[in-house]
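Protein modeling request. Please complete all fields; requests missing the sequence field cannot be processed.
Requester role: graduate student
Desired output: 3D structure, token encoding
Chains: 1
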Amino acid sequence: MERKLFQLGDVVQMKKAHPCGTNAWKVIRMGMDIRIKCTGCDHSVMIPRLEFERKMKKVLQSTEPKEE
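Delivered output (68 residues):
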């Protein structure tokens, strides 16, 4: 399986929506565990990296500008 690329400060889309109605999360801590914060209600969750990579769909907003 290919590793998904994300970095600190990225806004990512998860497979399941949060109960507040949004499924966009901001990555606020990285390591063996990833801490993400809901962009809708500011609730934060810490989950293991492998579980996060399985549940993440795509990066919605990257902190690094793309080169053209």
